Amino acid sequence: MPMSLRIATWNINSVRARADIVEQFLRDHRPDVLCLQETKVANDIFPHGLFEQLGYTHRILNGQRMHHGVATISRVPLEGAWRYDWQDNGEARHIGVRLPNGVLLENVYVPAGGDVPDREVNPKFGQKMDFIERMTRWSEGLNEPAVIVGDFNVAPLDCDVWNHKALLDVVSHTPMEVDVLNRLQQSHDWVDLGRHFNPAPEKFFTWWSYRNIDWRLSDRGRRLDHIWASPSVAKQATAFEAIRDARDWGKPSDHIPQIVTLDL
C-alpha cells in the first residue's frame, strides 16, 4: 500500500542550544522524519525527552561532543543503521537507515572545507574534496532506491548564491567543489529535488551568515543544504517546502529546514 512520508533536513548548529526552535518546527510542521546535522552532542547526552514527548520515538544517532554529529529522528519505524566514515578520521558525519517501504535514507554532513580553496595550503579543503569523492565511490555502487539529505556545504549553481562572480573563489562555490559535487550527482543520476521544485534560474538559498545584520534585507545567501533522490523515488515526490521563517526563530541556526513529501 502506498504511503506518504514527509522527510525534513536541517543543520541545527547544536540541537541542545536550539531545542526550542526544534520543538517549534516539529509542532508546526510535523514531518515524519527529521534529519539533523551539526548536532554537537555526544550520544549519551542527546536530548531524547524533547523528541519522545512529541511522538518521535525512533532515534538513530551518530554524535560527537562539541563538533559535527548527525541524528535521524522519526515517528515511523526505521530499520537498520549504518555510519560511513567518508571523512576517514572517525568524525560523526553520516547515518543511513531504511524507511518502512525499503527506501534508504542517508543523512550526511559534508565538511565546510576551511577558508582557502587549495588543498596544499589548507588541508581542510582537501578533506572536503576527498569526502565527496568517497561518497561518489559509494554512490556508484548503489543499487537500491535512496534519498540522501543534509548539509553538503556546496552551492552548485550560479543561482544558488547571492553573487556568482563574487563567490567564485569562496569555499562552497568554487569550480572545483561544483565539479566534484556534479560527479557525485551523475554517479547515480540523483535528482536534486530542491531544484526540481524551484527550477533555475530562480534564486534559492538555505543558509545566511550570522554576519548579516539583516539577512532578509541583504539576502546574501547560499544553497548549501540539499535533498536528492534516486530517479525512481524522485518521480514520487509531490511537494517541497523551505521554511525561511525559521531563520528568525529564537536563537536561530544559520541554516533553514527543508521538507519533501514522497508518496511511496
Task: Summarize the entry for a quick read.
This protein is an alpha+beta fold and about 260 residues long. Helices cover about 20% and strands about 25% of the residues.
Sketch the major β-sheet.
Answer: 6 strands, mixed
Helix content: 10-25%
| CATH architecture designation | 4-Layer Sandwich
- Which strand order spans the largest sheet, edge to edge or round the barrel? 3-4-2-1-14-13
Radius of gyration: 17 Å
Description:
There is one protein chain. With 264 residues, this protein is an alpha+beta fold. The chain has a single domain, classed as Deoxyribonuclease I, Chain A, CATH 3.60.10. It is 22% helix and 25% strand. The strands form three sheets. It has a six-stranded mixed sheet with strand order 3-4-2-1-14-13. A six-stranded mixed sheet has the order 5-6-7-8-12-9. A hairpin with a 5-residue loop joins strand 6 and strand 7. Helix 3 runs parallel beside helix 4. The longest helix is centred in the middle third of the chain and has 18 residues. The mean pLDDT is 97.
Characteristic key phrases:
264 residues, alpha+beta, Deoxyribonuclease I, Chain A, 6-stranded mixed β-sheet, globular
Write the layout of secondary structure elements.
Blueprint: E1 4-11, H1 19-29, E2 33-37, H2 48-52, E3 58-62, E4 70-74, E5 79-82, E6 94-98, E7 104-109, H3 123-140, E8 146-151, H4 175-186, E9 191-192, H5 193-197, E10 207-208, H6 215-218, E11 221-222, E12 225-229, H7 231-234, E13 237-242, E14 258-263
Parallel strand pairs: 1-2, 7-8
Antiparallel strand pairs: 1-14, 2-4, 3-4, 5-6, 6-7, 8-12, 9-12, 10-11, 13-14
